[in-house]
Design goal:
By secondary structure, the protein is an alpha+beta fold. Helices cover 54% and strands 8% of the residues. It contains ten helices and six strands. The protein has helices at residues 4-29, 38-48, 50-68, 104-109, 111-172, 178-213, 231-237, 242-259, 308-374, 380-411; strands spanning 76-82, 91-100, 270-278, 290-297, 456-458, 488-490. The protein is elongated and about 130 Å long.
Length: 522
């Protein structure tokens, strides 16, 4: 592995130049374009939504019903002409006017229902505002996470292409084994597949985001990856989700329907007035040419026990059923909000832990593993393990931002920020090779807590026959085909600081054999 560093440096330089050209081309294409933040996207959706404008107008109309009920119904006008059989007592056109006016006590009783309906419409406006914010936030975060994953996977593919090419050259010159070559190719294939998946997800997210924003997909310039929902959006939405608002309104309306079930069966009186005009040759029964008729009509509930009582009972029970169902749904929505608040706290704490400790440790481990592998002091499997650990944490860092946004919108409350996680200074982190002296068995509470993923370290070089109870003496007479490659050790959970191990062997080897002896392939 003498030429490993040269090959890696040469291939890395080519990949870097290629990446710079691609980045420059991308910046040139999007020059002058403006990318909306999550808050700007939500507010733009609110401002252009005809649905919110119509719902706000509905709330105003329903609010006016509280005083409009005291107005009478539309009057009814009538006009007619009557003729006698002999044509002598002809009557000129008759006109009339009738008006139905509700009983004042009935109007007062229905004020409770009108107020409940008006409140329901006002809360429905807030609920629709929440639904739009949630929809646009989910579409925006889908695009932002996919865009961030594409950037990360592109770099990951370039690095794996460099490693794969180096392993292939080593394999051609007999300095690497087939296991390492196949492993590198499989890692590259998986990274390319993840990159393609992220690209497809970004395409789908852009189409959905463009439809919600009512723009063409080509007008979407990109996304920013926020850490959380802006506090101004949370304050404007309030402390209740759309489900809670609708359930609370349904409970109020159901109770109002139950309370006004009897008053809805009380009949309303109708007042009528009409004028009869007679011809000059005839007179009215009162001796004049005109007379007026006044009347008051009221529906008499003769079948009250069979009709009105049944209708009142039906309305009352329907109101009770609606109220209780809404209460049950409100309990479930309250529980979902509480779960969202807990998810937010947990995701926020994990996000801080990632940025204060885990990502720094993983990045330091990856860089140290690359340097150690270039010098030939680290096995290829340890290099891949270090890269996989860093890739997993980086992917979690990207995806957890979407979890934070969704959980905060679900919780919708003033949630206390989790406690700060202990930070790690990357400049003070030891390199991987310096930590390979030996594994410490003491636990110091003042030291850094252990990382979530175990850090691979190389064990001291040992020569023995596979399956033997005791290792034989290390003599020069033993053939190289009977040696066993060093096996990387894993840090224990009890250790509160990075483990230290002895210096590994200079040349990584691959293990093969039948279980009784090992062969070394340089």
């Amino acid at each position: 592995m003498k030429n490993t560093k040269c090959w890696l440096d040469e291939i890395t330089m080519k990949k870097t130049l290629y990446g710079i050209l691609i980045a420059f081309w991308g910046l040139t294409c999007v020059a002058g374009a403006q990318t909306l933040s999550l808050e700007q996207a939500i507010r733009a959706t609110w401002d252009t939504s005809s649905q919110l404008k119509a719902q706000k107008e509905l709330g105003r109309i329903y609010s006016d019903d509280t005083w409009r009920r005291f107005l009478p119904q539309e009057p009814t006008a009538s006009w007619a002409v009557n003729y006698s059989a002999n044509g002598q007592d002809a009557i000129e056109p008759i006109w009339g006017l009738s008006l139905t006016y509700p009983i004042p006590f009935k109007s007062l009783a229905f004020t409770q229902l009108d107020s409940a309906n008006a409140q329901q419409q006002r809360w429905e406006w807030n609920a629709q505002k929440y639904d739009l914010a949630l929809a646009i936030a989910q579409a925006y975060m889908n695009g932002a996470t996919a865009q961030a994953m594409i950037a990360f996977q592109k770099q990951n593919v370039q690095d794996l292409e460099t490693i794969t090419e180096a392993i292939r050259l080593q394999y051609v010159h007999g300095q690497s084994n087939q296991v390492s070559k196949i492993s590198a190719e499989l890692q590259l294939t998986q990274a390319q597949r993840d990159l393609k998946t992220a690209q497809d997800q970004l395409k789908t997210a852009v189409e959905l985001y463009a439809k919600l924003m009512k723009i063409a997909p080509g007008e979407v310039t990109g996304f920013e990856l926020p850490e959380d929902v802006p506090s101004s959006i949370i304050k404007e939405l309030g402390d209740r989700t759309s489900g809670q608002l609708r359930d609370k309104a349904s409970v109020t309306v159901g109770e109002a329907q139950r309370a006004t079930a009897f008053w809805s069966q009380v009949p309303d009186p109708t007042f009528s007035v009409s004028q009869d005009n007679y011809q000059l040759m005839t007179t009215s029964p009162w001796g004049g040419t005109q007379d007026y008729n006044f009347s008051i009509s009221v529906t008499i509930p003769l079948l009250f026990p069979f009709r009105e009582v049944a209708e009142a009972s039906r309305n009352e029970n329907q109101g009770i059923v609606s109220r209780e169902q809404s209460k049950l749904q409100l309990i479930q929505d309250n529980s979902a909000q509480e779960a969202g608040a807990l998810d937010y706290k947990r995701s926020k704490a994990r996000f801080k832990q990632l940025h204060s400790r885990d990502l720094l440790l993983a990045e330091t481990m990856k860089q140290s593993a690359v340097e150690a592998y270039k010098r030939g002091t680290l096995h290829f499997s340890d290099l891949i393990l270090a890269r996989q650990t860093y890739a997993a944490l980086k992917t979690e860092d990207i995806q957890i931002r979407q979890e934070i946004v969704n959980a905060h919108l679900t919780g919708l409350r003033d949630i206390e920020e989790p406690a700060e996680s202990p930070s790690v200074d990357s400049s003070s982190l030891p390199s991987l090779e310096s930590t390979q002296s030996k594994v410490s068995s003491e636990t110091d509470k003042n030291e850094l807590p252990p990382p979530t993923d175990k850090v691979p370290t190389a064990a001291p070089k040992r020569h023995h026959r596979l399956g033997a109870n005791k290792p034989p003496e290390d003599t020069e007479s033993q053939t190289q085909s009977e040696t066993v490659s060093p096996t990387p050790s894993v840090g224990t959970k009890e250790s509160s600081k990075l483990p230290e191990a002895a210096e590994p062997s200079a040349t990584p080897t691959a293990e093969t054999g039948n279980g009784n002896s090992g062969t070394e392939t340089k």
